[in-house]
Amino acid sequence: MKRRNFLQSSAVLTASGVWSSLLANSTQNVLKPNRLKPGDTIGILSPGGAIKGPESIEDTIALFNTMGFKTKVSAQALGRWGYFSGTDDERVNDLHSMFSDPDIQAIITTRGGSGCNRLLPLLDYTLIKNNPKIFIGYSDITALLNAITVKTGLVTFHGPVVTSTWNEVTLHYFNQVLMGNNNVVFTNPEESIDDSIVKTITPGKASGRLFGGNLSVLSTMIGSEYLPDWSDTILFLEDTKEDIYRIDRMLMHLKLAGILGKIKGFIFAQCTSCHQDDPGFSIHEILDQYIKPLGIPAWYGSMVGHIHDKFTLPIGLSVEINSQDGSIQLLEPAVI
């Protein structure tokens, strides 16, 4: 499939016949935000690291405006306190203000960075639950995405930040997931800026609620109250600029914590610019050692993480995966 034909071809969605098998893992506690519509206001905030300056978000704000959206930049989005955008209290207040503002329909983070896990015990989850809206980001935002979904039931979104590359593939999935009413199917185009290639670890299909994100961030949350019961879930992971031995260590942490033994399916999306020692193991050899023995559908190479072409994946929603073609299908729309 040529890249220029990707958008047309990916508009064809397949029907799913596995609804009956999901009753035990249904969406009874799932809270969905309203879909995004032209004329809506997108709130922009920096709950983690500081950004370089207003020029780093100007192009994306202009893009949102051409798409028919209004934007509102939070009070602390352009701030700096050390390597954070503000103190913990300032960043929490920013997030609370965005969720409580009736004029804002969606919230997009400027970047990841670090520091989001410092906010988890300070958040007013009741306020968030009472004001459900789209919340999207990736990398360090992993901490907020999973914690908010676990604590409130609100579906959050692992996807582009304001400073991401908003190319046609990224925009396609952003629009399909957040603006449509579709059971979206995520598949890598045969031609990608990132040369994403699906490498099956264990073939098969599985269904369950989708959780995950950045491995380094997620592993620091193990043992806390901000991660789900991993039974009957699909776990997806990504990371960047990590030594392979550290990926090994973190996967062992997931194993020792009992997480790998509970999940029904596994996706390692990308390990961008990860360093392999010589002699040493490759990322694929490490995944074979930890994931193949589980006997669950699994693959490497999904378009998620620190790459240009990027999926927008709903955290906490039921999906079906096929590890042979590297596809993820939503079993229901992510928004209402």
Short key terms for the protein model shown above:
14 strands, eight-stranded mixed beta sheet, 336 residues, six-stranded mixed beta sheet
Can you characterise this structure?
The protein is of the alpha/beta class. Helices cover 25% and strands 20% of the residues. It has helices spanning 6-9, 55-66, 88-100, 125-130, 142-152, 168-178, 215-220, 244-256, 283-291, and strands spanning 41-45, 70-73, 106-109, 134-137, 156-158, 185-186, 199-202, 205-214, 233-240, 265-272, 298-300, 313-315, 318-322, 327-330. α8 packs parallel to α9 (283-291). The protein is globular. The two termini are 32 Å apart. 47% of the residues are buried.
Summarize the structure.
By secondary structure, the chain is α/β, with parallel strands linked by helices.
